[in-house]
Amino acid sequence: MTPAELSSTVLHAVRRAVDAGELDVTVPARAVVAPPGPGGCGDYATNIALQLARPAGQPPNRVAEVLRPYLVGVDGVADVVLTGPGFLNISLGGAAPAALVEEILSAGTRYGHADAPDAPDAPDAPDNSVVRLHCPHDLRAVVVADAVARVLRCQGALVRVTAEGFDREWTAALDVRVDGVGPAPAGPPVTVRPVPAPADPLPLGRDAARWALLHPAAHDRPRIGDEHLAQREGNPLFRVRYAHARSRALTRNAADLGFAAAPGPVPDAPQDLLAALGDHPRVLAAAAAHRAPDRIARHLVAVADATLPFLPAVLPRGGEKPSAAHRARLALAEAAGTVLAGGLTLLGIDAPDHL
Fold first, then answer.
1. pTM for the whole thing?
2. CA-based angle 210:211:213, to the nearest 5?
3. For residue 83, which phi and psi values (nearest 5 degrees)?
4. How many CB atoms lie within 10 A of CB 66?
5. C-beta of residue 324 within 8 angstroms of C-beta of residue 262
6. Per residue in 23-33, pLDDT tens?
7. CA dihedral 204, 208, 211, 212 (to 10 degrees)
């Protein structure tokens, strides 16, 4: 069961409870499912009971108790536990990783993207359908606006970026562009004004410079130093790119051994990895909604940190012959690499197969 399917399952449980007369509420249009927070458990958690408590006129824990039986019996749901003020913590059955991995590998690096518009050229679109981003003559602002535009477009938006000033070398050095230079356009543009960088990031090169400017939140001052170039675990960008490159190396190594990936149950699959992969579409949507590409950067670090400990168990060891379990583990590793590559691409950073 994918996160989108689980969200629909939660809404169906609410609808069944309403039809049975146990809840008197309007069924919401969307149910948020996400990895459990502190004190939670299982694969996913939802706050739907807290959301419905006020309209239902009941305490959140009571609403959660009403919904739990309608979730426990659903195919793919192994258990549902109530925690905190009314969170429903959902553990999925063994087939869940296979469905998630299959979804990721089928979508490729577009996993988590919404349908793009038929006419993507923002200048030619009706004014009221375009998200207008405007930034000052500042390199970090232009890079952040460029990344925000990429993320918004992946969610189906039309975007036009303008800046009060723009240096041509920025395009060549950091692969950024704007659609217009000058004062803010007419209408209500979204102003992109992060804290400026304390030093020139261009000497870092495109990938490290973009990471240095995008990884911190807009209100944080970025660090501009050689730490972004270090090929060691202390460098988050290195961990993300290394995890991607290792996943690609495993595919090549498996081919040498005569087998390929095939999604299937992975009994020893790390739950933090599955949760991070399943949460990727939500992270992209949130990054677009909040104009915050730093959310994607931090999410990629979480995916990489969950991926790296799993990779040594993917290939057969010693005299082992490739089995269905090895093919399923390889598929999970490939899915992780796909998410890392897709996220880096949205940030305008290369995801090399060899590192």
1. 0.76
2. 65
3. -135, 160
4. 20
5. yes
6. 999 999 889 88
7. -30
